[in-house]
Amino acid sequence: MIPNDRYQRHSLIDWFSQDDVRGARIGVVGAGAVGNEVLKCLALLGVGALDIFDLDRVEVHNLTRSVLFRESDIGRNKAECAAERVRELDPSIAVTAHVGDFFRVLDFDRLQDYAAIICCVDNFEARIRLNLICKLWRVNFINTGVDSRNAVVDTFPFALNPEAGCYECALPPSVYQRLSQRYSCGGLKRIAFVEKRIPTTVITASLAGSLAASRALRLGPGAPDQNAGRIFVDSITGSSTRTELPQRADCPVCSQLKAPVRIARVDRLQAALENLADAEVTLPEPLILSFKCKSCGRGDGHDTPLFWRASDHDSRLTDCAGCGAEGAVDIEIKDRIPAQTLALIGDRPLPLPFVATGSETGTRVFVLRWES
Q1: How far is the C-alpha of 299 from the C-alpha of 292, rounded, in Å?
Q2: Rg of the Cα trace of the chain?
Q3: What does the mean pLDDT of the chain come to?
């Protein structure tokens, strides 16, 4: 039973269940401006548990948009600072800070404990990866976006409706074009590329954060709205729109990975793939399979693929370490490969937490034991 002293007024709200809120665990990825507002709202509402994921440190410019940070926090991890302030707001909340890339520190065995995961990051790669994870594990996914004037909140109720449209269903081709600008033609990050920063204010961050917290707590069993949708708010005019986000037939996620989804933890990937020789395997992030210099012929991975994580490298890898030729190295990078190719990994650990393979009859996910 929830004590009445702190939440007495909540008990007077006819559509609000304090017991349901107290029983919810929410994952918040990104503890910047929007993440601060999400955490503030959830803490004051009395959510039961919060997991906060962030790899960045507090900088001075964060202080104009982040209610949980103080000047004394500059240089500290955002996740740890936010967790401390949440405990100050309500010491009874079980809050855990996870410092690092969420993809490398997320506990995949506990994914389905989340009532929702709220994405408060400012890059498309992380959103795409979170969308895939939530789609496969049937975890409700809330995505946020802000600029200096507008706030956007997308809701993907995968726990209620596995056939709901996903984040990539709603992405226009221009997003993929923008992503390609960050990478060389081989798929490695351009070392000289400078990402354009979008200015924001605490006004749009607070709009997105409060809406995201509200949506996350309204996705329990029996929720009336079980379709993906987007809320767009103009902070200057006060106008808002609500649009449905239907599943797209050519979506790179939904067209490849269909329900039902079966998830299995495996110790040896090679053994798990023995009966899937003709299947294509979806990787949650691209891997480098091989490279070869066009000038001197130096290379590796052609007999046995390398299976290097592409995100660990940048465009300097295209410069040959043997002959010194700049930009002469051809690199094979894939995010989908045949199962028979992946099986060549043998007993080596794959530097990914899972892989998936889909067919018209459903999707199989293999969760791997790996070292980050």
Answers
A1: 4
A2: 22
A3: 91
Q: Does 249 map to a domain?
A: no
- 205 and 335 housed in the same domain: no
Confirm if 77 and 99 have CB atoms less than 8 A apart.
yes
List the chain residues with pLDDT less than 70: 1-4, 181-187, 189-196, 370-372
- Angle value at C-alpha 167, between 216 and 101, nearest 5 degrees: 75
Residue 250 covered by a domain: no
pTM: 0.92
- Report how many domains make up the chain: 2
pLDDT at 195: 55
User: Are 165 and 306 part of one and the same domain?
Assistant: no
Residues 266 and 223 in one domain: no
271 plus 173 within the same structural domain: no
Q: Which pLDDT value is given to residue 193? A: 45
CATH classification at residue 140 = 3.40.50.720
**One domain for residues 158 and 302:** no
Q: Which domain holds residue 359?
A: 261-368
pLDDT score for 187? 62
